[in-house]
Amino acid sequence: MILRGWPVSPYTAKTRAYLRFCELEFTERQPTAFGLYFRVQKKVGKMVMPTLELDDGRWLQDTSDIADFFENRDPKVTPEAPLNRFLSALFELFGDEWLIICAMQARWRTPGNPEFAIAEFGRTGFPGLPGRVQRRLARPLAERMQAHLPRMGLTPAMGTAFDQMLDQWLADLDVHLEKRDYLLGGRPCLGDFACMGPIYAHVWRDPASRHRVEAHPRVLAWMNRVHEGEPASGDWAAEVPATLIPLLAPVFTQMLPWIRTVVDAVNAWCAEHPGSKRVPRALGNAAFSVGDTNGERVMVTFAHWMAQRPLAVANEPSVQAWLSEHGWHEAVNSIELRHPMVRRDYREWLETTC
């Protein structure tokens, strides 16, 4: 198998770590800008990373699709217990959809990091050229990445709010890891890989923000364990420890209200477009909050597909009992996902027409 991605990519880090842990043989290649345009885009329809080319010539794209492909055959990071399965999917959603915003803030708003990222884009995208030329050619790509910040709602005030949230989350994770190696016990779940990706590839690997991870030694050790695919030290815990609750607080109080906003927008769009097979990639702007800071961001409908993963387990009795115990049942049960999506041909499609 061939994994194509760049070291600066958090989703490539997530996939690389998963493949390592599952002891799947693969070769990693860093595609040039021309390779992304002429080969990757030709195969999956867009310039994106990571992609995984299977030995039989098929291509997989999207980290969750890649994990599902292998988990459906030989599950290694999917807990059997419904509550742990729910929490794993919830942390995956948090890593892919929420921590990634913290990572973008760290990369593009921390003085010194943008220059590092541009140099890395140039080194991997345009190898063999002089560094000055590499950076000049890579700058438009960096500008396109930076253009996503307003779409994510990353105003200066909201960026500060995400910075504070991340620093608190890392501190809480350090406490949690005092008595366990991973989020759910002695074995990594998919949530570990998803949360590690943006922390490793953006916050830690970019030099000007690295200290934020290194301030928490147990987090640094966890990040390295997950990224290197170290063997499990035990199994998933039978009960949810109290130290996991602070890590879940922003999931339920900040991220899930936004997920509900996106799902409601998909429901409204489908009501207005009966017979449609696909929903637009974005559905305009909507308000969201992080702590006491309010902002506005684009409703990207891919989050609707990702949200199906934890919601598929949410009605299990053990999950509902746990949600009620912590007062979080409304945050989950108020999400009315009426139009399930499936991934086909590297895109999201409605399971049935609107």
User: What characteristic shape results from the CA principal axes?
Assistant: globular
What is the string of helix and strand elements? EHEHEEHHHHHHHHHHEEHHHEE
Spans with pLDDT under 50 lasting ≥5 residues?
none
Radius of gyration: 20 Å
Instruction: Give the mean pLDDT.
Output: 96
* Cα end-to-end separation: 37 Å
Fraction of residues in H or I helices: 55-70%
| Count of beta strands | 8
For the largest sheet, list the strands in their spatial order.
Answer: 2-1-3-4
**What structural category arises from helix and sheet content?**
alpha+beta
**Sheet with most strands:** 4 strands, mixed
Percentage beta strand: 5-15%
Q: Give the count of helical stretches.
A: 15
Detailed description of the structure:
This protein has a 4-stranded mixed beta sheet with strand order 2-1-3-4, sandwiched between helices. It has a two-stranded antiparallel ribbon with strand order 5-6. It is an alpha+beta fold and 354 residues long. Helix 4 packs across helix 8 (156-176). The longest helix is centred in the N-terminal third of the chain and has 28 residues, at 82-109. It contains 15 helices and 8 strands. A hairpin with a 2-residue loop joins strand 5 and strand 6.
